[in-house]
User: What shape does this take?
Amino acid sequence: MHDVIVVGGGPAGTTAATLLRKHNPGLSVLILEKAAFPREHIGESQLPVIGPILDEMGVWDKVEGANFPIKLGASFTWGRDREQWEFDFFPTESFVDEPRPGRFEGQRRYTAFQVERSIYDEILLRHAETCGVQVREGAHVRRVRREGDRVTGLELDSGETLIGRQYIDASGHAGLIRRAMGIDSVAPPGLRNVAFWSYYDNARWAIEIGVGGTRIQVRSLDYGWMWFIPLGPDRASVGLVCPADYAAQSPRSPTEMLRKAIDDEPLITSLLRDATCSSGETALTTKNWSHLADRIAGENWWICGEAAGFADPILSAGMTLAHGTAREVAYSILELERGEQDPDWLRRCYDEKGRRNIGQHIRFAEYWYAANGCFTDLQEHCQSIAKDSGLRLTPNQSWRWLAQGGFSNNTPGFAALGSFDLATTKKLIKLFSGKDAGYSILKHNTFRLNLANAEQGYAAEYHEGRVHRVPCYRRGGLELPVTGTLGAMVRALQMESDLVTLWNMLVHAGNTTPGAQVSGETHAYRCMQALEGMLSEGWVMGSVNKKRPMMRMDDHQGLTIRTSVDANAALGDASGTVRFDKPPR
Assistant: This one.
């Protein structure tokens, strides 16, 4: 008998298990992993939101000590004109040379890793063991026993039957518990892609920034797109993603298709000119089908990571969703152990939030592909995105809704779309469409809350090992949590309606809050993004008071997105900390 049995020893399984033991060392936690580590796995490129989770797990120093490249962003050729542009989490020209291994502080909070999964996953698995998690490798679950909506045991190939009080399905695409419980998973037809990839030694980096900093390379082709991900000083993962139908109809083998893609992309060809393939003569293959499970929590079982859902790798969100959903599963089980929260509410909150988050990543991936010309009418595609969110809008209305802050309920308290905040989303929409996605709030200078016909309830906020009940309003399938920047905006609007006065109030609040992590102006900008989302979904109404001034906002928030020419020009002034593999274009 174990308190918790986790099926799968990848990032999702080890995150859940480690956090369970960290916040409740008395729990008996077992990981069952069918493979023997180390083992290769796809999904090497991370996003910055993983850093705080690694830090909470206590494994940041071990991952940093592996000397993985620091991901500062990505270089894309994307969009209908295939212009090269750079997408940076942290302004690359401001990245300061620092010795490694470094601490999780300062500029490193805004960066990510590019990891070799055979090394990364084993670091996480061994760290889980040091935290008191029992790990059994080579343990293959042959059958999941169930009674109704309850898992009653796991039968192994060895003949053993293991019993737990709670079960976590972190088995990846296999979805062992999900399938055993009869939970369907829907795959969007437009994102049924396959991937072919290999690993190369003696590969060159396109760009090196400071000590260990670089960008991944994403290159659009007529039949798909390629990735080039540095995994170490001279090792890289190189792959091709294309529609499954295209691959099935091609006379070429997966290996031949990958080699042709490399030949078709001059930059990647140049980066591999002295490299040798280290993963065998045959390219590795996988189905990278986006999917979303119909349900991800039951009576005594939880689904996280890729078993719950997967968003196309174009957004590098797979590992983010794996670590994030696993963290929330751990927190939910910890609350069950405390017995202070309604179990049904905990399961419902995890299920709704997790599925909504994965679904929004999938829909934004569809938008990303649409921007590359995969759909004939981008505005009509935006209409289908809005419809999936419970809104009936015309194509033009849905376009404005997306640009003005759709999906403000993605993460309680913040206006976001997929993994990006609203300011970044607006920059991307402008880049893809050529149309300015400015702030609609600037067309007004007076605002009032509109909570008519809204029901009051509670949303879940996952923080420091606890699931907190935060007040929220619900109306027409939309949710307004009164926490974070959304909560700050609700409270400000209860006292003031004038936009300029609201701005000054928020700046002052940010500057005077003890322990604030950002400046007052940054806090006010984030609250303005929240207000934009609230306006788009009808939580506030805007008007113009001719006796009061209008307001302007500089568009410097969000991630740094610019053309390759502008980015390289900025790096050229960065005191010699940058090495290009070839002259900037």
